[in-house]
Amino acid sequence: MSEHIKIHKAPGTWTVRAGGAVLVESANALELVEGGMPPVIYFPRSDIGMAFLEPSETRSHCPHKGDASYYSIQAKSGLIPDAGWSYESPKDAVARIRDHIAFFPDKVTVEQL
């Protein structure tokens, strides 16, 4: 793994809420810490209400993790564009985040219960 990226099981149970709905509740989340950046919680797809998520056309690239695909959330209040992202084929050093999605905390509520 890249020396400046650490991945471990996030302690406890985590949730994601958007537009008044709980999209995720997971005791299997991963916490990724990259350099001096704030930790990011990655949720297993199997714990996500994927019916609320729509693939977006947005893409980005990280030299350490690979190519990211984005997801918008269809909430009661309307579409929340590019609210989450996933590395579909992450680099080997961060392979643990495959099949996980992270969410922007300024677009949804990500919290530990």
Summary of the model, kept short:
This protein is mainly β and 113 residues long. It has strands at 5-9, 14-18, 21-26, 30-34, 40-44, 53-62, 66-75, 78-86, 100-103, 109-112.
Please, could you describe this protein's structure?
- This protein has strands at about 5-10, 15-20, 20-25, 30-35, 40-45, 55-60, 65-75, 80-85, 100-105, 110.
- By secondary structure, the protein is mostly beta strands.
- The chain has one domain (about 5-110): Domain of unknown function (DUF427) (Metal Binding Protein, Guanine Nucleotide Exchange Factor, Chain A, Beta Complex), CATH 2.170.150.40.
- The strands form 2 sheets. Strands 1-4-5-9-8-7-6 form a 7-stranded antiparallel β-sheet, with no helix packed on it. Strands 3-2-10 form a 3-stranded antiparallel β-sheet, with no helix packed on it.
- A hairpin with a 2-residue loop joins strand 2 and strand 3.
- The radius of gyration is 13 Å and the shape is globular.
Q: What is the number of beta strands?
A: 10
Spell out the helices and strands N to C.
Answer: EEEEEEEEEE
CATH top level is Mainly Beta
Shape: globular
Label the CATH architecture.
Answer: Beta Complex
Q: Unreliable runs, pLDDT <50, ≥5 residues?
A: none
| Tally of separate domains | 1
The share of residues in helices is under 10%
What radius of gyration results from the CA coordinates?
13 Å
Largest sheet: 7 strands, antiparallel
The CATH topology: Metal Binding Protein, Guanine Nucleotide Exchange Factor, Chain A
Mean pLDDT reading:
95
InterPro entries: DUF427, DUF427_sf
Domain DUF427: 15-105
Pfam family, one: NTP_transf_9
Protein name: DUF427 domain-containing protein
